[in-house]
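pls read this protein:
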Amino acid sequence: MATTISRFSITDLTQRFRWLWMINAFFMPWLALIGIIPAIKTGNSAWLALGFIIFYVAIPILDYVSGQDPNNHDEADVPALDADNYFRWALFVALAGVIVVWFSAIAYAWYAQLSILGLAALALSCMGLGGAFLNLGHELGHKKNRPERWAASLALGIAALPHFSVEHNRGHHRDVATPHDHASSRLGENFYRFMFREMPGTWLRGWRLEADRLHAKGLSFWSTKNEILPGAIITLLFFTLVGALCGPTVLAFVIITSLLGHTNLTAANYVEHYGLLRQKLDNGRYETPQPQHSWNQNSLISNLITFQLQRHSDHHAHPSRRYQCLRHFDDVPQLPAGYYAMFLLAYIPPLWFKVMDKKVLNWAANDIDRINVLAGKREHYQAKIATLAHS
């Protein structure tokens, strides 16, 4: 796990090396298809899963080698940086790149007449594309101008998660780090239990929030003002087009791959707020979200390819702040590794608990009332804290 300080910093990535953000359009998405050549050469379709291995093995290694970047911009430079349209266009170009690669993957799956094994291997590699769509939809969906909001609908529609912007902006950001949030994981809750709570919970909350908003305005759910419907129409048209042109087998591949892509979002939600809790005030409301209510991470490579998503502490405290401006804070919970390594750790609950439970308890100074604990596990952790106190 990286502890070294990177030779490069966020200021390098927004100045002399700003072109590196374009790897999210012209290089990273294509790694999902890197296994096609060895699969063709060897006749072994298992090679199609190579992209999955690269994301979960090579990227954590690169994070370790490249080190951490805890640097921030001078706040006096932030207004000009925020207004620099290059960084907005980097998102649009990245979205176009991911669309091209995803459509190429679908065309290959249809043309090559892949076996079930081949489709499964390709789906594993392409699940990262779903994560890319959702990450871009997340960043674009936080903005107010029409081009970015429409681009977010396109990204989320193709990813088959059209409700995400509504749910995330009006639900998750409101309830984050409280027991009421479907997308905040609790101490003692394993990834798979969380997934079966988060996925249906966020779906229902997103649609309900939009229905309630429209009802309050006296509008029909089917109104053109419905912010979810454009993405939902794109999802329906996309699946219909794939089914009509490529047949039911490839359509099933696309749907399953999309669902796998959704697990990237679930994994991100799982690691971003594990065990963290906002305190309830005397008036019954929870305190305003602060940087300390999200886990932060500064691995240089992972931050580059996720548009600084790992600087999640600043994002939740200042949701409208653009990715190139997000800050590191010293006094917030820090993940021990980048997201790709943490996702892999989350998939193995005993390892996750061994690493992260200690960090949660240390952050909360062993105060159970400062922790978002899974129902039924409170006594277990109280006993653990008592043991630590007497050791």
User: Anything to note?
Assistant: The chain has a mean pLDDT of 94. The chain is about 60% helix and 0% strand.
